[in-house]
Structure formats: structure tokens, C-alpha cells
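> forwarded from #structure-qc
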């Protein structure tokens, strides 16, 4: 087998060999993972829209309280994240 054929075969094998990630790869990826902050901002926008669009006569006090609690949590988290 010539040099170019050997290089081509090695390149083909390297590009087409399936790689199965092991536990170490997952651990390393999770160790460096940082959740995007826009997720909280998006959730805040959606919950505010829900609050504004919901007629208070049809919302139970329990659900309205849970909604307000989550809104306060998000605002606190975003305030902490921006510092």
C-alpha cells in the first residue's frame, strides 16, 4: 500500500469511526456547564405575560400565589446573576 493510500485509509477510519462518550467525558462537560441566563429571562417574560392576561376572577389564590412566588424567585436570581 502506498503512502497516500495509507494516509487516505487512516483519515477515513478517523472520520468514520463512531466515538462513544464515556463517563469521564460527561463528568468533564457537566463540571464546566453553566446554564444560560436567558432561560430565566424568558421564563420571567412568559410568567409576567400569563399574570397580565389572566383574569383574577378565574385564578385560584393558590395558583396566583405560586406564580407570584416564582416571579420573585426569578427576579432575585437575575439580580444576583447580574452582579
Amino acid at each position: 500500500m502506498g503512502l497516500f493510500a495509507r494516509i487516505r485509509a487512516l483519515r477515513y477510519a478517523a472520520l468514520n469511526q463512531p466515538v462513544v462518550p464515556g463517563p469521564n467525558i460527561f463528568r468533564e462537560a457537566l463540571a464546566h456547564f453553566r446554564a444560560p441566563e436567558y432561560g430565566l429571562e424568558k421564563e420571567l417574560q412568559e410568567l409576567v405575560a400569563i399574570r397580565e392576561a389572566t383574569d383574577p376572577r378565574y385564578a385560584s389564590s393558590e395558583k396566583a400565589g405560586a406564580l407570584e412566588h416564582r416571579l420573585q424567585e426569578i427576579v432575585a436570581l437575575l439580580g444576583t446573576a447580574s452582579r
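QC bot note: Residues 3-81 form one domain. The chain is about 70% helix and 0% strand.
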